[in-house]
Design a protein that fits this description.
By secondary structure, the chain is mostly helical. It has 8 helices and no strands. The two termini are 55 Å apart. Its main location: mitochondrion.
Length: 250
């Protein structure tokens, strides 16, 4: 089977979900150290030094900072916690990205199928603007994936934030502690802000992707037609030239 035939073949809903989950898990495994460093830098207090003279209070704030930049944070984490420290919370993060990617792509595909079936019904009241469909699909799939997998995101953040002094000894211990101390709502702290952020983000991402894809397809067709028209024009000129030469030689 040719590459073009393989690319054009539609995947099943389950296959699409699996592909999305695997993609999310692999990308998470690679990017985990940067995520841990980012969270540590975000949570620490104090102000960075910019190379100018500081007051005594300002100097004290600088001394209070544990990490003085990304590279320093990486070296400190490795020194104090070992290389595994850069992957703290990675187990819950893998669950997060595996499930998030699966739910996201599965929901997006189902939304596309839904819009397609609505369009086939020819009910003008139900047909959405085709340009807005990918935006809406992206917003829905992003919100659905965020709500479904948010407890894993919260666990990932808490694991990444803890340094040498461990609050949670493991995933099971963290789940028990959060549930006992904060209740079921503890697993969804900050979810409203996350959903409000992800709706426009995913809507614009998928919408921009579909618009860009259509634009490139139109460009390819335009270039193909332009190339074909040049070939036709050239053949016409040759034919006319041949006819002209025929009459001249007569």
């Amino acid at each position: 089977m040719s590459d073009q035939a393989v690319a054009s073949k539609q995947l099943s809903a389950i296959a699409t979900g699996i592909c999305g989950g695997v993609a999310g898990a692999v990308s998470r495994l690679v990017a985990s150290p940067l995520d841990v460093v980012k969270i540590r830098l975000q949570l620490q207090t104090g102000r960075p030094s910019f190379g100018f003279a500081a007051t005594q209070l300002f100097q004290q704030k600088i001394l209070d900072r544990k990490y003085n930049g990304m590279l320093h944070a990486v070296s400190m984490i490795i020194r104090e916690e070992g290389i595994r420290g850069l992957w703290k919370g990675n187990l819950s993060a893998e669950y997060l990205y595996l499930s998030y990617g699966t739910v996201q792509f599965l929901t997006y595909q189902q939304m596309q199928i839904l819009f397609s079936s609505i369009g086939d019904g020819r009910d003008d009241k139900l047909i959405f603007n085709k340009t807005l469909q990918p935006f809406l699909s992206g917003a829905v799939c992003g919100a659905t994936a965020t709500v479904t997998t948010y407890p894993f995101d919260l666990l990932r953040t808490r694991f990444a934030a803890q340094g040498e002094k461990k609050i949670y000894s493991g995933l099971t211990h963290a789940i028990k502690q959060i549930y006992n101390q904060e209740g079921i709502g503890g697993f969804y702290r900050g979810i409203s802000a996350s959903v409000l952020q992800i709706i426009p983000y995913m809507g614009l991402m998928f919408g921009s992707y579909e618009i860009s894809k259509k634009s490139f397809r139109l460009l390819e067709v335009s270039l193909l037609l332009s190339a074909n028209s040049r070939v036709i024009d050239t053949s016409i000129i040759i034919k006319v030239g041949d006819k002209f030469n025929f009459y001249i030689t007569e």
